[in-house]
Amino acid sequence: MPASALDTTSYWIGSTSLPRFLKLSRDERVDVVIVGGGITGLTAAYLLTAAGRSIALLERGRCAMVDTGLTTAHLTMVTDTRLSELVESFGRDHAQAVWDAGLAAIAQIDAIVRDEKIECDYAWVPGYLHAPRDRSKQGEPVDFEKEAALAMELGFDAELVKDVPLMGGPGVRYEDQARFHPRMYLAGLARAIEAGGGHIYEHTEGCEFCPEPLGVKANGHTITCKDIVLATHNPLVGLSNVASATLFQTKLALYTSYVVGGRVRKGRVPDALFSDTGDPYDYLRLEPHHGYDLVIFGGEDHKTGQADDTNRCFDALRRRLESLLPGIDVTHRWSGQVVETPDGLPYLGRNTGHQYAATGFAGNGMTFGTLGAMIAADGIVGRANPWAELFDTGRKKICGSEWTAVTENKDYPYYLVRDRFAGSEGRTLRSVKRGEGKILDLDGTRVAAYRKEDGTSVVRSAVCTHLGCEVAWNTAERTWDCPCHGSRFKPTGEVLAGPAEAPLEEIDR
């Protein structure tokens, strides 16, 4: 069975349920409003509640259902940007601080797991950086001996290995990395937040931000507060002015990453984290079970909305996994988004007044998401954070950042022009099959048309509500994806992931 024959529910979502929370139904006053119920939002809520602050967390849908529910949950300080490249860009001290921050985030997760006695398959494991097994995916050559020596010089427990387990060939082994079940962990966090007096509201979208008095409107009610944390992966405008927020968002590049998972006998795959040096790179870990291990394998990254056939990405990934582990029983596939920044570091901390944001985690979502919560919580309670300046959202003096920001978004004007002249996929709703979406030309208007399984059709504007690009249908995920800045919409037009904040507009028919 090809990977494209499986549905796209992530293993984490399918294997664990979270507590359910009510909608906001009244006005409230709290110290902090947190918008977003993934790892950043729930961690910030936990840390602030533990510090004695009253909080209200607002989640548009269900907690841990989007990016945190679609991760592969590698807990590692090893960044997508090589340590040697960090040294060239920031200097040795700052490069060391970046990895130190990652280790601090892992230690924070470890402490919460122990303090709250959360059963989430948490374990310390080694991590390996290695060359791609598939030579066609070879990226820039990496001097593994140099990377290992540099890591050791900066105080990290690393060593050069001549034969990486499972993968073969040379690489670097890093100690003190970790893995866990992210939704089991966040379920424990949510219970601890409630027990500490925090309020979590689901199906509650923060739709308007008020500067005076400071607050957030949702479900027709207002929560006034002293501080706001935007924990939406791709940050909302919030209290920022539209021009500065739009400029900030153009610094972000959104990529889709694919995952397939399958069962193998216990002990066949080492319990470790693996990442190769390909471009794009593949990454692997396992999730242990009593009678077998689930191998979770990811890769095939591309700019969101810029793949003609997303099923091919899944199938290519599956072929590489089956080549690595012949006979593996593939049971899952899903995809998620990662956000890249010009200099390879996330933006974490205060971005205006009493508002904090966290974005640009790249392949380190669990660690940098946790770190973003730590920096926001420290800022709100008045504690100094050693990494706040390094990850400052307004930083400018980064080697090569201006040029990289331009090149990352160079295709944005191209897509604006292309969308205006591209041919449609049909002219009648009859051409859209059940469970399918198409861009149609209906009486001179380009629309995003979707037919539900019951045969009824939904027609929305094909124009992304962020900056006016045209969305494209994602066959595998059944979503409308914007190729310009990565917004994603449900088949019926509602926002699934930003930077768009408004749904696709309805079309009168």
Explain the overall architecture:
- The chain is α+β, with helices and mostly antiparallel strands and 509 residues long.
- The protein contains 11 helices and 26 strands.
- The protein has helices at residues 11-15, 39-50, 83-90, 92-116, 144-153, 182-195, 242-249, 310-324, 365-381, 401-408, 411-421, and strands at 28-29, 32-35, 55-58, 74-75, 123-130, 158-161, 171-179, 199-201, 208-211, 214-218, 221-224, 227-230, 253-264, 273-276, 283-288, 293-303, 329-340, 347-352, 355-359, 437-442, 445-451, 457-461, 472-474, 479-481, 488-489, 495-497.
- The strands form 5 sheets. Strands 4, 5, 6, 7, 13, 14, 15, 16 and 17 form a 9-stranded mixed sheet that branches. Strands 8-3-2-12-19-18 form a 6-stranded mixed sheet. A 4-stranded mixed sheet has the order 1-11-10-9, with no helix packed on it.
- Strand 18 and strand 19 form a beta hairpin.
- Helix 2 (39-50) runs parallel beside helix 6, helix 3 packs across helix 4 and helix 4 packs across helix 9.
- The longest helix is centred in the N-terminal third of the chain and has 25 residues, at 92-116.
- The radius of gyration is 22 Å and the shape is globular.
- The chain starts with 10 loop residues before the first helix and ends in a 12-residue tail after the last strand.
- Residues 398-410 and 412-421 have low confidence and may be disordered.
